[in-house]
From TrEMBL:
Signal peptide: none annotated. PANTHER family: 1,4-DIHYDROXY-2-NAPHTHOYL-COA THIOESTERASE 1 (PTHR43240:SF5). Keywords: Hydrolase. This is Hotdog fold thioesterase. The keyword Hydrolase applies. CDD domains: PaaI_thioesterase. InterPro entries: HotDog_dom_sf (IPR029069), PAAI_dom (IPR003736), Thioestr_dom (IPR006683). GO terms for cellular component: cytosol. Belongs to the thioesterase PaaI family. One of its GO terms (molecular function) is 1,4-dihydroxy-2-naphthoyl-CoA thioesterase activity.
Length: 143
């Protein structure tokens, strides 16, 4: 049974990224499971650091994008929204090119907070980054 509120789709999620950072960095959501979300990001000039490898900040941007999307899809957005409180990342190996793929899975879904783990792999399937994000669940202000 899916943990998502409503019936989100990969197409709808990608459209919701609009004209902001995920689109600028070439991120795409590729899969939505019952309790996880998967996305990709190219390793290219706009996501590399000066030494020619994937920028750690780009990895964190992908992790936060997937974790934040997932957290907000779990709650009723007419009553709540989720915002990041803390994120960390362990960069385990460099990636020079290709596509990185990340999977966000829930560690904890609570009434006032959520914790998501994001595991990122290079094109050959090697783990290059592990991240964890804590999200605050905030009530929508009443008018």
């Amino acid at each position: 049974m899916a943990i998502w509120h409503g019936a989100p789709t990969v197409e709808g999620i990608n459209q919701s990224m609009g004209d902001c950072m995920p689109s600028y960095l070439g991120m795409q959501v590729t899969e939505l499971g019952d309790d996880f979300i998967v996305g990709t990001m190219p390793v290219e000039d706009r996501t590399r650091q000066p030494f020619g490898i994937l920028h750690g900040g780009a990895s964190v941007a992908l992790a936060e994008t997937l974790g934040s999307m997932a957290a907000n899809m779990v709650v009723d957005n007419s009553k709540f929204y989720c915002v990041g409180q803390e994120i960390n990342a362990n960069h385990l190996r460099p990636v020079a090119d290709g596509l990185v793929t990340a999977k966000a899975s829930a560690v904890h879904i609570g009434r006032s907070s959520q914790v998501w783990e994001i595991r990122m792999h290079d094109a050959s399937g090697k783990l290059n980054c592990i991240s964890r994000i804590t999200m605050a669940v905030v009530p929508v202000p009443s008018l």
